[in-house]
Design goal:
Largest sheet: 5 strands, antiparallel
Number of domains: 2
Structural class: mainly beta
Number of helices: 1
Helix content: 10-25%
Length: 163
């Protein structure tokens, strides 16, 4: 729909050439834009292509997950779609160092690459891995984040990037 972000459409999608009518605007030959005060078609087309390029690689959400008394929760997040809220995410610690993060399958465009995560606190962890949920509950997508020190699971605050 014109006038809104493609991330807010139903279903959400990443921007493409169709978002900008092919990014093929042309200046009027008889009344060209004043280069000091008006944008040109070439400038507009370049900006459209830049937005498309960013839209291909930007995470659709970044979610910070922390632990209090053994329970995981979303501490903060940012998302490309304005309809996404904290309630959009279900976060559950399923064991030491194992955390499931789920979201509605229609909250974001289809993933372009797997999600990734980094540890965001000073804690002894030697690896963090993100595994797509093979069989999430109907209507959801999600990941399991595993944080380890050697073979032992360790709860550690992390930042999840969903692409």
């Amino acid at each position: 729909m014109a006038g809104q972000s493609t991330f807010d459409e139903a279903p959400p999608r990443r921007p493409g050439l169709s978002t900008f009518n092919g990014a093929a605007k042309a200046d009027d030959a008889e009344f060209p834009p004043d280069p000091k005060t008006m944008p040109s078609a070439a400038e507009y087309n370049a900006l459209c292509r830049l937005v498309i390029a960013y839209g291909k690689v930007v995470p659709v959400a970044i979610v910070d997950v922390a632990f209090t008394g053994g329970a995981a929760s979303v501490q903060r997040f940012v998302a490309a779609g304005s309809h996404v809220t904290t309630a959009s995410f279900t976060v559950q610690r399923t064991g030491p160092g194992d955390t499931d993060v789920l979201w509605p399958e229609d909250a974001f465009p289809a993933p372009v690459v797997d999600a990734d995560a980094t540890i965001t606190e000073d804690v002894d962890v030697d690896r963090v891995r993100v595994f797509p949920r093979v069989s999430p509950p109907a209507g959801t997508r999600g990941v399991t984040v595993r944080t380890r020190l050697g073979a032992a699971g360790v709860d550690a605050r992390f930042q999840l990037r969903i692409y």
